[in-house]
Amino acid sequence: MQSHPEVAVLRYGHRPGRDDRMTTHVGLTARALGADRVLFPDNATQAAETVRDITGRFGGPFDVERTTELNATIEDWPGVVVHLTMYGEQLQSVDDEIRTTHREEPVLVVVGGEKVPGDVYEAADWNVGVTNQPHSEVAGLAVFLDRLFDGRELEQGYENAERRVIPEELGKHVVDVEDGDHAEGAAAGDGD
User: Fold this and answer.
1) Would the annotation count 112 as a binding residue?
2) Are 140 and 185 part of one and the same domain?
């Protein structure tokens, strides 16, 4: 969310073929829930393309980057590093402190994709567990960002969108922004 110091999400690790959907969803969740950018491992080409495409169609601002320097990204981060792991401190015991720190400093949220080395745990300012139970890293990211932004991310607008979803009780309603009266809809339960 552009009114605060930056929030970036680093996907730490990606196994092509196995993690494609999950890595893509890390990026989509970061975008939808207020982060300013996502950094993917260099081999996450398809995930990066998909998130860029969604950002182009549904608006931003949101940046997508790929890097071969995952550890250097963490080590050189100019603010605080939050590593999401089920083994970390309970979110509810540290979220106020992280939120307060974020008022002054950018936050890098590290989301593991495969076994995360101990160096990441040591480099993080906080190792945070959303439930301390096995769960999806996408779910953990969503809950963390909602706590970080205190729900404000749910009201954010998106600039330069080509398409916009019109909320409805039933069905799907998507309009082209240039032609607001042209809607594409489908009955509830059709497709995604």
Assistant:
1) yes
2) no
Instruction: Give me the domain span that covers residue 105.
Output: 7-161
Answer yes or no: are the C-beta atoms of 116 and 83 closer than 8 Å: yes
Is pTM beyond 0.85? Reply is yes
Does 113 count as an annotated binding residue?
yes
Same domain assignment for residues 99 and 135? yes
State the Cα–Cα distance between residues 175 and 164, nearest whole angstrom: 5
Provide the Cα torsion 44, 45, 48, 54; round to 10°: -130
To the question of whether residue 169 is assigned a binding role by annotation, the answer is no
Same domain (yes/no): 82, 145: yes
Residue 115 annotated in ligand binding? yes
Please indicate if the annotation marks 84 as binding a ligand. yes
Query: 120 lies in a domain?
Result: yes
Per-residue model confidence as pLDDT tens for the chain (192 residues):
666 799 999 999 999 999 999 999 999 999 999 999 999 999 999 999 999 999 999 999 999 999 999 999 999 999 999 999 999 999 999 999 999 999 999 999 999 977 899 999 999 999 999 998 999 999 999 999 999 999 999 999 899 999 999 999 999 999 998 754 443 444 444 444
CA separation, residue 14 to residues 23, 45, 54, 85, 113 (Å): 7, 10, 20, 16, 6
| 72 and 30 within one domain | yes
**Those residues with Cβ within 8 angstroms of residue 169's Cβ, 6 or more apart along the chain or in another chain:** none
The answer to whether 153 is annotated as binding is no
